[in-house]
Amino acid sequence: MRTTSSTIRTISSRTGNPNSTRRHRGFTRAAAALAAGTLALTLTACGGDDDDGGGKNTGADETTNTVTLPKLDGESLSVAAVWTGAEQKNFKAVLDEFEKRTGAEVTFVPAQDPIINFLGSKIAGGQPPDVAMLPQPGAIKQAVEKGWATPLGAEAQAELSKNYSQGWQDIGSVDGKPYGVYYKAANKSLIWYNTQVFENAGASEPKTWDELLDTARMVYDSGVTPFSIGGADGWTLTDWFENVYLSQAGPEKYDQLAAHEIKWTDPSVADALTTLAEIWGKQDYVAGGAQGALQTEFPASVTQTFTGGDQPKAGMVYEGDFVQVNIGETKAKVGTDAKVFPFPAVGDEAPVVSGGDAAVILKDSEAAQALATFLASPDAATIHAGLGGYLSPNKNVEASAYPNEVQQKMAEALVAAGDDFRFDMSDQAPQAFGGTPGKGEWKALQDFLKNPKDVAGAQRQLEADAAAAYGN
């Protein structure tokens, strides 16, 4: 569920895009647009009872045919992704439509993090998937450098140009050449809360970090632990850090740290870690304390927030829009029992961070290129949108395709941001640092969650791991 895998951040100079600096300066405008969208997320919405994470949308069942696909009877191809549960199920519905239109047979291949290592094993064994959904720009770059990836063909590029802002095209490119279709996006600057808990505590939605701390105290005083943290999955901790760092240090520092142009021993990193420790360092504010959090996987961090009525294990859980999928596994309704507010401002601006999953071709064929073309079209995204727990950066997907007002507002805000966004920092890094369980940033922040007093030690470890991964 790492996904796509949404601060919204822009890929650094690794794409070779000369307009990246201009987009970086647009952070405030982009943040305002996305914050405006997420502020409306507390409106009631028809959350789903099933594991699809959203209500039914009859409009999404009426699939359109805006893209022409070849007949591929007798052809077969495989698609690898680190998606499980409802996320995998819903993507398979999209693949079913591709099969229906083309006659090709598509097999979904469950992958594991880090996906680059998984793909390396498959390639070494002579069985690479035809297409892989890569959750990091850094992974796309590595796949290209290793000679695994194939550039997108003319048809897929045409769909990209028609349906995606230049910024989303750029982060799927390496040295100016398009390799990835960012099929799935995520707004990763949201905090979800149990409305019964907030009502009992007399708490309201905070807009600043200090207000968040006040809200946490009110929830704690009411008898409920404030936060649920899925610390067993290190990527959730990187997302916490990125939101704090982007808001507190600002977009320019964020871009520099993402590219390792400044060291993790920089004072700005110490400031962000110290801020995080205001929550992570309070054992009574984290469900199960640090040890409990480090044994809690992301899905459980969500479900334990929305089960147990007004006495759940925690009152709030931080993560992206895809939390809706896991809420759908409980009896809670999004928009009534479960609501959401934007990650509060630590500095002058509230952070807006984005992530995403890109389709990358590993075995060049007419079928693989056709699937990439389909995934770049509004057709594929419209099907997935109607199933819930999904956002598309495709600007030609109608907001009405999403099953509830919560997702419609998030989708509108995502598209409205255009080229002005920041992408998840750890996803920009080499996978050895930003995308490997038990190593690099994931492990260093897990260790920091265990001992939030050791800011300097955490910085030293982060810098040592980053220098080794970036090669500088």
From TrEMBL:
Sorted keywords for this record are: Transport
Q: Does the keyword Membrane apply?
A: no
Task: Please list where the region (Disordered) is annotated.
Answer: 1-24
Low complexity: bias regions? 1-15
Domain of life, per the record? Bacteria
Question: InterPro entries, from UniProt?
Answer: Bact_solute-bd_prot1, SBP
Classification via PANTHER family: ARABINOSE-BINDING PROTEIN-RELATED, OSMOPROTECTIVE COMPOUNDS-BINDING PROTEIN GGTB
Q: Which family does it belong to?
A: Belongs to the bacterial solute-binding protein 1 family.
Q: What is this protein called?
A: ABC transporter substrate-binding protein
User: What's the source species for this entry?
Assistant: Streptomyces broussonetiae
Q: What is the lineage of its organism?
A: Bacteria, Bacillati, Actinomycetota, Actinomycetes, Kitasatosporales
